[in-house]
Amino acid sequence: MNRFVALLAVALAAGVHYAPAQSADGKLRIIAFGAHPDDCELKASGVAALWAAQGHKVKFVSLTNGDIGHFEEAGAPLALRRKAEVETCARGLGIATEVMDIHDGELMPTLENRKMVARLIREWQADIVLFHRPYDYHADHRNVGVLVQDAAVLVAAAFFTPDTPPTKKNPVFLYYSDNFQKPYPFEPTLVVGIDEAAEKKWECIRAMPSQFADKNSWQGRTLPNVPEDAGQRQAYILEVLKKRNVDVADKYRERLVQLYGADKGRKFRYAEAFELCQYGSQPTLEELKKLFPTFR
């Protein structure tokens, strides 16, 4: 029995059940949390575009303003620039976005921030919540995981942050994929083929040069063999990021085949992967597939 199946059995035994769409029109409401203004976009903009195309409501939230994620500029000018970039990206994807005014590198798992996360989920009346696992190289990423997990049960508690209405049912919480192995490796519950939305994802990435194109952007300075020419540099970095989505599809090819069938599962070039968190509603695999695009 793998870890997902074991956790699902425990949750179901405890009486935590699947929550369908909470809105009257049957459309899903999805909120995704990232540590910085580019994390949600890297991990979930493909599936977000697919959801949005079906009329579902998606919101990306960065819990820090990204004001030190560059090697040449910082502070308010960088924070404003990165906010404008993710807003451009959101317009292209057809979703909403919000950037919280917390300094990059300073996100802490405090009660105040737990309340902030709970309010954001409650205000959006989310059916699905996406976020980082709490195992990561970056403290901000880890603390996003801690904060969302700690808010998971509280979003349905009437008297926690009573200035916002509780969710009618507990949302489904899912982690983004990552490659970290300790203390627990990522295990994909769903792997979503995003080929039909891939170009929207690449346009989103092109809209964020402060992270993915500037000579002194984080990727421009930390990736190996980055070209000096500006146009070649942006194209090179984009190809690196495209390959990460190719790698997700290839790494979890067997899971794609299980989920989509052999013919379709083998054809996907790009994918995003998600693991069901043991907190929140616990849909069966078939119920979960109905909540995500491309499986119907």
From TrEMBL:
InterPro entries: GlcNAc_PI_deacetylase-related (IPR003737), LmbE-like_dom_sf (IPR024078)
Keywords carried by this UniProt record: Signal
Keyword Signal: yes
First and last residue of the signal peptide: 1-23
Keyword Signal recorded: yes
GO molecular function: hydrolase activity, acting on carbon-nitrogen (but not peptide) bonds, in linear amides
Coiled coil: none
Name recorded for this polypeptide: LmbE family protein
Species annotation: uncultured Cytophagales bacterium
